[in-house]
Automatic annotation (TrEMBL):
The chain crosses the membrane at residues 9-26, 74-91, 103-125, 131-152, 181-214, 226-246, 258-276, 285-303, 339-357, 369-387, 393-413, 420-444. The keyword Electron transport does not apply. This is AcrB/AcrD/AcrF family protein. The keyword Secreted does not apply. It comes from the Bacteria. Keywords: Membrane, Transmembrane, Transmembrane helix.
Amino acid sequence: MRRDLDESWLQWSLIAWLLIAAWFIWQRWPYIYWLALRDTDDNMRLMQVRALLHGQGWYDLTQYRLNPPQGFNIHWSRLVDLPIAGLILFFRMFTSDAWAQKLAVGIAPLLPLSVVMASISFTVRRLVAPLAYPLAILLIAFGCTVAILMFLPERIDHHGWQLAFLCLTVAGLADDRRLRAGAIIGLSSAASLTIGLEMLPYCAMAGAIVALRWIWDRDQVIQLKVYALTLAGGTALGFAGFASYANMAMRCDALTPVYLIVMVVSGALLFLLALWNPERRGTRLAAALVAGAAIGIGFVLAFPQCLGRPEGVSPELARLWLDNVREAKPIYAHPLRTAVPIAVMPLIGLIGAIIASIADWRRNRSVKWIPVALFTAFACALLLWQVRAGPAAQLLAIPGATALAWIILPWLLQRNSMLVRVLGTAAAFLAISGLFTGALLRWFPIDPPSKRTQIINRANSRCASLPRLAQLNRIPAQIVFTHVDLGPRLITTTHHDAIAGPYHRNGDAILDVHHAFMGTPQQFLSIAKRHHATLLVTCPNMSETTVYRARSPGGFYDQLAHGKHFAFLTPVKMPEGSPFRVWKIE
């Protein structure tokens, strides 16, 4: 059995993935049945796939049902659309289009999870022990409380695939076959950048680690050469194959010519360093620093517009909207009930990676653990910048946490006392996996949500539900003026069009919605007419509405919420129990 677990590790990892995937599908079946795409990005991803299947151009990522007739530009790529579209086309052969979409968005997020589990299994086999990967899989399933959410059915946003490519990058860093390692790191970084720039800091860190390895050990030159070529070539192919028409401009928020040039030049410089490959370590270090400085200075001089926020939004839009996005805030700005479950696994993984690095150096004078330890520490540091780094930090912590468990659990199992062997081992696993912390938070509420928060959460949930939104289809199709965060869900589930969604490239439309709800009644009417909106739909107590009322007491939405009537609004009767308030705009 041990031999089979060792030799057939990939098959066993995929079997574990299939079991977990089956459990998630069974557990989340109601969400699949009701097409419960709760996140705005998941809804927009499905709309992007629908547009592709209905004949929209490959390089045209405009969403024409937002802010019609000109549409709403989305800065993504089509790479993540492919598996979803493929699944829809496959299931259409056996069922209706509606069910094909439901099944596709239920299954698609589970595909990158297979890459995650295989990559981390490979990593811990190289760094910890050949038979340590089942433990790593358990830690992924039970300890990555935030990361695992990125792979649940209906979570079709691009983050799951970016996390999968990040885990592939770590597997490449742990691989002792230098040519293969360089190719894995370079291609996974290029694929991640093709999807979006969220993982750009990790891609830069991976490149820095590859260069540091070469600086330390001249024999790593093969890995550096292959990495340089695959990074530059893979990024160029990603740009050619997936960059939209809008991304041909010198923008800073996606794989545009800006980052294409940076990656190609970086790959070229690294390849030239590898061709030179000086013997002295100090010379290699100086050459790498010069190359890095050249890239940095060149970026500053060539692309000064990208030195600030990559979104390039106006100060007003940042103040009213972007600065208030919760996932863009540091972890210490969140309630303990949110922050603690996110931070536990990264901290445990960092401790384990440091201990394993020290032990490996003392035992073998080896530095194979150091790249993973550096990556884990880097991910922990990014949590102090934005909490959206949480899923990546948890997955990057798995090798270190596995190493720690691989030290502690066998020691406990060898104790003479049965009590220590059984209870001690169970307690240690619960502590290392973070399950104990999660249980404590359930038993002893910390920062429990207030009654007001509960009301807001209920409104957010009810107004996003498919049966409630389907009630709006009783009204003839038209352009609807509604909240920014409700726009993508509205166009996904009804035949109506909307004005805005939470996407920074369309700042003018987002500001129009904010100005309309927070300004005077006449200002609302003027903006609504300019956007040709003939229907107003609001969701009382939805989180976005609390912003309007708090920032503009006495403004249009605040007056509307207090029941004031306006001559240009005619109420539309909705079914009893509907969470929406609807008016015709005249």
